[in-house]
Design a protein that fits this description.
The protein has 30 helices and 20 strands. The chain has about 725 residues and is an alpha+beta fold. It starts with a helix and ends with a strand. The chain binds manganese (II) ion (MN).
Length: about 725
């Protein structure tokens, strides 16, 4: 082990590097870790040297690299912060201390379920821990280099992860994928982000990692040969335009390919598997090169992206175009050398290796952006899980930029789906969205949008939102609009249902549903129940807060309950004669019961209903109680009356309720009773009162009469109808 390679690497970009200081730190750290071993069996100090090398790859300042060499001395050896400060100055001591603290406060990456079952003490502990971590992140944002050292440290730890126990391995890999890789992404350090993601992916999902790697290997030779051919052709095309450029093939990292496959892109369709990169001297050459390519090859206009004129928040700049060559699609990035450095190293590319601060305005803006987002994390996070969730959401995730078919640019939070985009355009487009064409191919509504996607929302006039959408939206705006739609729909549904309940209940009572639902009497009842209007009443019934039976009872004329029951004499008579009905096909299915709900009497159209375990019940056909299950209905008919044994038997009679609505004039009641008496029909009981149901009638007569059957009942009702002043005669049961 020697410091020589590290020093020459640093000197290659920083001739003024403080070599003496670097050497002192090297020796100090090596001494401090003497005798300590990594789990791999190597001396512990190898890890410190590797960390420093990764920082040198990012071309960072001497102090940062020194701190990289010593980043573990406070944690793992007896060295104190004061000692570091005396020997190497406050700057280095602060950096090392910062890295040590970050290592101590672990973000909680456990699942929601684990958080939910945690004890109260545990939750308080985790909350404190999360809060400390948050404050720490804010504090370290003052010196970005702490994060950079931590990232370099994490890269080497991930590279040697296989030597740890599998449980620890899983935890560190998960933390890397959820916290550290996103930080690297936010800072634009692609070089580190892609390494962290691939390493974490490999440990968390070894099977999937192998599958993707194998798929890539299978076509490697073919792909490389094709790439070489394209590189040559592009060079020629550019040289003709006087542009001398570096053209080379590039590979995507495995985790990003896996993410694309997971989002539903078939492997053989992942476009940028064949990707090329063109590096030129200046910005003007980028556009000239683009023009030259478009002249020579056909290209997808909708996949053309100008990230030079419109840089991403993390500072990324490039031109992207997709050309068509012999049926293959080739994705090409064109950028300057400086842009390339930023694309690879992000914030580190803006770093002054002399002062250890951002040099350019762009660097400062990336840095300021990072700090702002850290500060935006509100103190109101009340659970560690929520804290981590919003960290991931607000701090470490990017926005995505998507285009409408007309080319208008829309910004959405990363993770936003087709539904979010549809609602962003217009509420009605959201409500009727059935899917989309994303970059020309059909995509489901839950598809997560990616940067540069061109999205054409597909709608259908009758389409409606689904509650499952709520788990597929990212934006609060879309969520609210969907919720509102359901609130209104629930209201409309309840209203319809309430009307149906009420109509059904009215039919059971043999009242005219249409008349009753529109009658002002119903509005009176609504008011009586403290409701504003009929709609409110229907909604209450539909939601089950008010029973339709109760409302109908308020609507119905009062009928004294005991008097509606058949007398003992009648019941006995019925029993002695056995059932008065039988099945049409004469098969005896046991007990048959005449149902009171509609009170069938001989001569009525009747129907049998096969109950569940209680034989057959007999209803008047059309009774509301049996309409829902036509498959259980059986044809029944009344039996012929058995021939009487003695000369003058008393006729069998059945009580029936009728309602007579008439004008309230003197003698009216007398005329009605006389009319009934003409048919030798007994009036069992009756109430005469002001009309409560129909407004055109001023009075109603509620009568229970004994009839021998439907035929006689019909005659009696006809007789009453002929009386002057009678508006309506209805059979109630
Ligand atoms: Mn370390």
């Amino acid at each position: 082990m020697s410091i020589k390679p590290l020093i020459s690497q640093i000197q290659s970009y920083n001739p003024e590097a403080e070599v003496e200081l670097l050497e002192r730190c090297y020796r100090f750290a090596q001494d401090a870790h003497k005798g300590q071993k990594r789990k791999s069996g190597e001396p512990y100090f190898t890890h410190c040297l590797k960390t420093a090398e990764i920082l040198a790859e990012l071309r960072l300042d001497t102090h940062t690299i020194c701190s990289g060499l010593m980043h573990d001395v406070l944690e793992d050896t007896g060295i104190t912060r004061e000692e570091l400060q005396v020997r190497f100055g406050a700057n280095i001591a602060n950096l090392v201390e910062g890295v040590t603290k970050i290592g101590q406060y672990r973000p909680n990456v456990t699942t929601a379920t684990a958080a939910a079952v945690a004890t109260v003490e545990d939750r308080i502990h985790r909350k404190t821990q999360a809060e400390t971590y948050r404050k720490l992140l804010l504090a370290t944002a003052e010196d970005m280099r702490v994060i950079l050292i931590k990232l370099a440290d994490r890269v080497h730890n991930m590279e040697t992860l296989k030597f740890l126990t599998s449980e620890k391995c899983q935890r560190i890999a998960k933390e890397t994928l959820e916290i550290y890789a996103p930080i690297a992404h936010r800072l634009g350090i692609w070089r580190i982000m892609s390494r962290l993601e691939d390493l974490a992916f490999k440990h968390l999902y070894p099977g999937e990692y192998r599958k993707v790697a194998e798929l890539l290997d299978q076509k490697l030779v073919e792909r490389e040969a094709y790439c070489d051919k394209m590189v040559k052709q592009i060079r020629q095309v550019l040289e003709k335009r006087g542009i001398y450029a570096d053209v080379h093939g590039r590979t995507k990292h495995i985790y990003s390919i896996y993410q694309k496959i997971q989002k539903g892109t078939p492997f053989n369709e992942i476009r940028d598997l064949i990707g090329l990169r063109i590096l030129v001297k200046n910005e003007a050459d980028c556009y000239i090169a683009l023009g030259a390519l478009h002249q020579r090859w056909n290209y997808h206009p909708d996949r053309l992206r100008d990230w030079i004129g419109n840089p991403k928040k993390n500072g990324y700049q490039s031109l992207h175009t997709t050309i068509l060559d012999e049926g293959k699609t080739v994705e090409i990035q064109i950028r300057t050398y400086q842009m390339h450095k930023i694309a690879e190293d992000g914030i580190a590319a803006h770093w002054s290796y002399k002062e250890g601060v951002p040099t350019s305005a762009q660097g400062r803006s990336i840095f300021a952006n990072y700090k702002q987002i850290l500060e935006d994390i509100q103190e109101t996070q009340d659970s560690p899980h929520q804290f981590v969730a919003s960290m991931k959401l607000e701090l470490f995730q990017d926005e995505v930029y998507v285009f409408s078919p007309k080319g208008d640019l829309f910004t959405l939070p990363a993770g936003a789906t087709v539904i979010d985009f549809a609602y962003k355009i217009h509420t009605d487009i959201g409500h009727t969205c059935v899917g989309a064409e994303v970059n020309g191919s059909i995509a489901p509504i839950r598809r997560v949008l990616e940067n540069g996607d061109q999205v054409n929302i597909r709608t259908q006039p009758n389409a409606k939102p689904s509650r499952s959408w709520l788990s597929h939206v990212k934006t609060a705006a879309a969520r609210n609009k969907i919720r509102l739609w359901f609130r209104e729909k629930d209201r409309a549904d309840a209203l319809e249902l309430g009307k149906k309940f009420l109509a059904a209940e009215l039919r059971v009572s043999y009242l005219n549903a249409r008349d009753c639902l529109n009658s002002p009497k119903l509005l009176d009842i609504a008011k009586q129940l403290n409701l504003k209007n009929l709609e409110e009443l229907f909604i209450r019934i539909g939601n089950g807060y008010e029973s339709a039976t109760h409302v109908v009872s308020l609507l119905k004329p009062e009928v004294p309950e005991p008097e509606t029951k058949p007398t003992d004499e009648v019941v006995a008579k019925r029993k002695s004669q056995g059932p008065a009905v039988q099945l049409e096909n004469d098969i005896d299915l046991g007990m048959m019961r005449i149902m009171k709900c509609c009170n069938p009497i001989p001569g009525d159209q009747v129907v049998g209903y096969l109950t569940r375990g209680r034989g057959v019940s007999v209803h008047r056909s059309g009774c509301i109680r049996i309409l829902d299950e036509p498959e259980r209905l059986l044809a029944v008919k009344w039996t012929e009356k058995p021939s009487p044994k003695n000369e003058n038997p008393p006729p069998d009679v059945y009580p029936v309720k009728i309602l007579v609505e008439c004008s309230d004039r003197p003698g009216m009641l007398g005329e009605i009773t006389t009319a009934i008496a003409q048919y030798k029909v007994n009036i069992r009981c009756g109430t005469f009162q002001p009309s409560t149901v129909h407004l055109d009638a001023t009075a109603s007569d509620n009568l229970t009469i004994d009839v021998t059957g439907a035929e006689q009942l019909d005659k009696v009702m006809q007789g009453i109808r002929q009386l002057k002043g009678v508006q309506r005669v209805t059979r109630l049961s």
